[in-house]
Write a structure and sequence with these properties.
This protein is mainly α. The protein contains 17 helices and 5 strands. A 3-stranded antiparallel β-sheet has the order 1-2-3. The protein has a two-stranded antiparallel sheet with strand order 4-5. Strand 2 and strand 3 form a beta hairpin. Helix 4 packs parallel to helix 9, helix 4 runs parallel beside helix 17 and helix 10 runs parallel beside helix 17. It is globular.
Length: 434
């Protein structure tokens, strides 16, 4: 194998594509237009992500909006503020069924999530050390236990999706704690409170902690059909394969550090900032930290400020605005006021640094305050992406069903071949390029 690795290294040029060829052949690298907007590849009624307007062919930045089935996510979060902590179940129902549930329908849906749990194959140990990989294995095992896993009716796919959605949290925490959980500890509570109870192995939590967790789940439930994991799900859905394969593929995409791992990176960045500020801080100091991050002098020296900037949102990310509001309440409840002020001021310092160094207008994204929120909830960073997967499963199911119903064509884009053409010389028994 070492010899094959050496041969591969010596021939890596065979896979190197000249970046100028993308413009020459008018290929949209990363499915991005020249102005950074995404190439339109589908239609959906589920979710809209708005960060700019195109006026006479020019991009104009606006305050961000996230729309679930026509409802602003801000309105959905505010709607839940005076109700029992079941906002995520409400949003999941809305995404999957296309309407807000009545009280009776919400109770039925919540009970279905509990009843549909399939814990027969839960393991507490895997050879993999990565929770997302373990989660993929568990979901694919559900295929094996399903007597009719490939049945294609939409109703069957929906019920299988609810089984996946209800089972995933127990898969995650069984593996995380190395302890088997085959039922939710709080039978009369929603998913947010059960996640806190599973994470802590205790039902000791405040109502504001539960609302912060519920808000995080609601805000991560979907983000349009163009995000990488949802698009991966949609591409595989177009083949007509089973829902278990599609959900597993989406999780594989989310596992990538360019997609779902940013909150974990943000957590480490938080710890670094707090350590630097432990003997006092001011706005100038925070600006210097931001400039050093961009100059690859601090943290992981990647040149990135985690939690700042987004592909679509520019003036504001509505998810960041909402979770910041909930973080403020929790910070003052639990004595994290100074930490909250540091991050609030650092947000402004980072945006200023990005404007000066890169000439771009940007905003804090959902990961900026999510990392801080998880920190206050005493959730370990290794769980962040798995919690993202738990929440996003509702959106994945909704897009899977919509595409099986309405977009029945196999997704098959094209590539342009830019390699050499080679001919075999029979007399000399070798190939030459032309």
């Amino acid at each position: 194998m070492n010899t094959l690795k050496r041969i591969y290294r010596e021939n890596m040029e065979a896979n190197q594509i000249d970046p100028s060829l993308y413009a020459r052949y008018r290929v949209k690298q990363g499915l991005r237009n020249e102005n950074g907007t995404g190439v339109k590849v589908g239609l959906t009624k589920i979710c809209d992500v708005v960060g700019y307007q195109m006026i006479h062919g020019h991009k104009h930045n606006i305050d961000g909006q996230l729309i679930y089935r026509g409802y602003s996510v801000r309105d959905l979060v505010k709607m839940q503020s005076k109700k029992p902590v079941q906002g995520y179940e409400t949003v999941a129902f809305l995404l999957i069924f296309g309407k807000l549930p009545t009280d009776q329908e919400l109770a039925l849906f919540r009970q279905a999530l509990h009843d549909a749990v399939n814990a027969d194959f839960i393991q507490v140990e895997y050879e993999t050390s990565n929770l997302l990989n373990a989660l993929q294995i568990e979901i694919l095992k559900l295929y094996g236990s399903d007597p009719n896993p490939d049945r294609d009716s939409l109703e069957e796919r929906m019920s299988k999706g609810i089984s996946i959605l209800g089972s995933i949290p127990l898969f995650v925490f069984s593996n995380y704690h190395h302890k088997r959980f085959d039922a939710y500890p709080l039978g009369d509570k929603g998913l947010a409170e059960n996640i806190l109870a599973l994470a802590r192995q205790s039902d000791a939590y405040t109502i504001q902690e539960a609302r912060v967790m519920d808000t995080l789940l609601m805000l991560h439930a979907d983000h349009g059909g163009g995000n990488n994991s949802t698009f991966a799900n949609v591409v595989i859905t177009s083949t007509g394969t089973d829902i278990y394969s599609c959900m597993s593929a989406a999780i594989g995409s989310l596992k990538g550090p360019r997609h779902g791992g940013a909150a974990e990176k943000m957590s480490g960045q938080c710890e670094m900032i707090l350590e630097l500020c432990q003997n006092g801080w001011d706005d100038q100091m925070l600006e210097e930290i931001a400039y050093k991050l961009l100059a690859k002098e601090l943290y992981d020296k990647s040149g990135l400020i985690y939690g700042i900037g987004h592909a679509i949102y520019t003036k504001s990310d509505p998810r960041a605005v909402l979770i910041k509001e909930e973080c403020r309440k929790l910070a003052y409840e639990q004595g994290y006021e100074e930490e909250f002020e540091i991050f609030s001021h650092f947000e402004q310092a980072a945006k200023k640094a990005m404007k000066r160094c890169k000439g771009i207008e940007c905003c804090a994204n959902v990961d900026f305050y999510s990392g801080f929120a998880y920190r206050m909830l005493h959730i370990e960073p290794s769980l962040f992406t798995s919690l993202f997967a738990i929440a996003r499963t509702a959106g994945w199911i909704a897009h899977h069903l919509e595409n099986r119903q309405s977009n029945r064509k196999l997704i098959r884009p094209a590539n342009i071949y830019v390699g050499e053409r080679k001919e075999w010389n029979e007399s000399d028994d070798y190939c030459f390029s032309r």
